Amino acid sequence: SLEHAAAQLQRLDFLLLTWGTSYVYRWAETGRVVSNCHKLPERLFHRQRASLDELAACWLPLLERLFALRPELQIITTVSPVRHLRDGAVGNVRSKATLLLLSELLSERYPERLHYFPSYELMMDELRDYRYYAEDMTHPSELAERLIAERLTQWWLSPEAQRGIAEAERLLRELRHRPLSSEPEAHRERLERLEAKLAAFYSKYPSALDLAALV
After folding, report:
1. Digit-coded pLDDT (tens) for 4-13
2. Is 198 exposed, middle or buried (0-12, 13-18, 19+ CB in 10 A)?
3. Which are the contacts of 29, defined by CB distance < 8 A and separation ≥ 6?
4. What angle is formed at CA 69 by the lines to CA 67 and CA 74, rounded to 5 degrees?
5. Which end of the chain, N or C, is surrounded by fewer C-beta atoms within 10 Å?
6. Residues 20 and 75 reside in one and the same domain
């Protein structure tokens, strides 16, 4: 809900913004940009690509309000590598180019607070082979998603945080594992070892998420 989102904003230290397209929907009666409700007839909307100036006029005051609310807030922006082929190959590239220019403009305006991560460029330049795309040839494959996530982790997180994530992933695999043996004693010993590992993990990382809730 909006109330929940507003409450979360007041506690944020980091915010990741992913932009997908610079195309917007305008309500035909007023010309105002709206979130398109797909249950309404398409004739009620005009779809067009927003200009860099229009996007900047929207985001600059919004960022000012966010930084006023949370002065310590750090923001990462990135452009989604998902291709919007409804707009055609040329339209998709022009749309993404506008978002790339917006990221540059905002990063130059807030160099200490806003940081750009090149997920779109990674997909286009380093992962451009077709095996990195899903069957629809629009979305990144699971392998590409994992590689981009790894690069984001290496780029943004400290070595200690990276080690914590690796440890959490190992524990999650253990939590999700379903042993073949039904021997009660072996099962009990396995649970005791796992509980000891979890206790050590939370002692080292007290603010970590509840891993059991992710199983």
Report:
1. 888 888 888 9
2. middle
3. 44
4. 40
5. N
6. yes
